[in-house]
Amino acid sequence: MPDRSPAFTPRPLRTARLDLLPLHPDHAAELAPVLADPALHTYIGGEPLDAPALRERYARWVAGSPEPEVVWANWALRLREAGALVGTAQVTAGPGPVAEVAWVTGTAWQGRGIATEAAKALVAEVLRQGVPAVVAHVHPEHAASVAVASAAGLRPTTRWQDGERRWERTREPAGA
């Protein structure tokens, strides 16, 4: 495979309980209060944004990466039984034949397996679209995200970035 980003395209995804909807700036109004707990940002950084600021961020994300060799794919997570948006998920594909996955679930929705379900769907989608390596960067003290990464089939490596451990999964060779 050439050392370039895949043509990764976000499409609606469905799991047992979730609809992963391609992110749209209009999702900001519903997601701003979901993501408003300052404690949520302990490990992911930043601070809560109000709806207008979050809408601007989502508009930038939807417009895509300014780097041509990098593809951004973002989803809003809708828990069907609640009829509510409960978080977001992201794939950053490239540069090169690798995609990084990330997830965030609002504090009120944590502890229900939502992030695990979303992360499994992201990893499966990345591999389905032909990207050979999936990674995530997880703070070692964030036990919940460590559990999510593990459940999604990622394994810890010895590599670190900005105080976070790199977790990785590679596609099984054909016939394995």
Question: Can you describe what's shown?
Answer:
The chain has 176 residues and is of the alpha+beta class. 27% of the residues lie in helices and 31% in strands. It contains five helices and eight strands. An eight-stranded mixed sheet has the order 1-2-3-4-5-6-8-7, with helices on both faces. The chain is globular. The protein starts with 12 loop residues before the first strand and ends in a 6-residue tail after the last strand. The model is unreliable at 1-5 (pLDDT under 50).
Defining key terms:
176 residues, alpha+beta, 8-stranded mixed beta sheet, GNAT family N-acetyltransferase
What layout of secondary structure does this protein have?
Elements: E1 13-14, E2 18-22, H1 28-34, H2 41-44, H3 51-63, E3 71-79, E4 84-93, E5 98-105, H4 114-128, E6 133-138, H5 143-151, E7 155-161, E8 164-170
Parallel strand pairs: 5-6
Antiparallel strand pairs: 1-2, 2-3, 3-4, 4-5, 6-8, 7-8
Helix pairs in contact: 1-3, 4-5
Brief account:
This is GNAT family N-acetyltransferase. The chain has helices spanning 28-34, 41-44, 51-63, 114-128, 143-151, and strands at 13-14, 18-22, 71-79, 84-93, 98-105, 133-138, 155-161, 164-170.
